[in-house]
Amino acid sequence: MIRLSWSLLLASLSMIACASAIDAQETKFVDCSLLIAPEYPATWPTHPFPRFQLIHEQAIGPNSPYNIDVLMIDGNTGTQMDVPPHSVVRPELKREKSGPFGLSWTDKIEPWQFGGEACIVDVRHLLDKAPNGVSPLVMPTDIEAFEKQHRKVGFGDVVLFRSDYSDQFYRPFPDGHRYIADVVDRKAPGYPDPGPETMEFLATRGVMTLGTDSASMGPMPNLAEPTHYAGLRHGMIWTEGATSLGQLPSTGAFYCMLSPRHANGPYSETRAFAITGGDLPRRLIEAARNKRAVDLSPVLDMKNPVTNPGTLAGRHRQVYVKVDFLYSPDLDLWHHTHLMDATAGTHLITPSFALPPEGAQVEYSPEVRGWLEEYEAKFGKRGFSNRTAEQVPLEWTCGEARVVDVTSLAGTTQKAQWPASPVITAELLEKDEQRNGKFLAGQIVIFRTGHIDRFFKPAPDDKGVWADPLTGKSEGWPAPDAAAIQLLKRRGIRCVATDAPDLGGVNPKQAAMTYWALGSADMVGIEFLNNVGNLPPNSYFLFAPTRIRDAHASPGRAIGMW
Asked: What SS3 class is residue 205?
């Protein structure tokens, strides 16, 4: 008995030591998303699926103090998320594949389902083990092999199939044809994928979220739709085109996918990533299992005011447009792409949005030159930056949420001075520190203005977000000045967010100075949040932009977990 007790004691001490070692590991973000760029096989290659386009509509110069980008991006671009209406028919159609999940569009999925504990099912033994054009199948026995070695999978887990397919074959053209096109053309073996019976097996386990590092969750050549329907009919969602799954432990990492919140989308471009090491993964996994999450992004829809209309003719940003290109009679819906400004809805602002690249000679307009002279006299030299969206580390846009409530600023400007925005000053931030403690390095500072919550309405009642404040018909939204940004930089803040349309406000001079201060401090901004008032204390903020090379801004999704 004594010997047995000592054995149990030693085993317990060993487990404690192991857990302590895991907790002591440094927290690390692993990007599991493919790079989107024109020379990569980022889009589905068959006709009539549109190709991705990044259009640099305006460059910093006489006509604009900012780099303005336009995107044409299909939901099947790069790393992507599928949701049930991809295969499940709307219930009102009363067809064979109709079901309640036929209404679970990308904008309707509950945010807790986007993440969970990564369970890496190693299927590398299947890579290239099939004839050309045919996918080797991941079977329930592969799941059972994982469970025998680790534990049973279940609700709150994200089952990820690791074949290393995208790591090996996602390359610039012409080599990139091997990723999808050569499989479609039966010139190369298909990518490993689960068969329908595997999806049904996982449904019995209660798994709701999956991922694959192959180009699709659908086995080639003829099991794509059966596999999709077998999983999606149970309300599952999943990542297609993940990558770098080999950097994750078999269990224990938190995995998440965040996509722009397109209205009525059956799929969407997404940013997938994982967090390993330390206490943070366990904290977020527990939040997902207990459904403790809130969506902080408004819905992208053609009838919603999601882009800047400008104040003068010809100065508006590209409006958000849904472009139908292929009708699916089985689902009675159109496959579609989106044409939109890169700052549509919730989005990232990079340092290069307002700063020219290193060494560039910029010829601003005379008015903006005057603003710059005033800025540099007060705040120091405006910097340069080459940091575009794909170069912003994910750990910069995720962190402990520090909400600064500035709703009391509403109504503090004089109507005779409109268009004007109440200013979030350095003094206001110092007063917030006196009440709530110092800002801490790594926090995501979120300005709660309440503006989007109050005014975000579909047309024709959409003027309160942008149009009326910009034209002086109503007060502008609160926005920080350059001094406030510099104070946050001194506190070690990397990312500033707002539930207003942007961080600049309606005064173009103040806006330019704010963005110059952000960029010169190598800080990033997240704009166009909502629902911040429903973020509980001690929440963790997660935002990830679409991974687009050379984009000066990029759309994404923000959620909070606790």
From this structure: helix
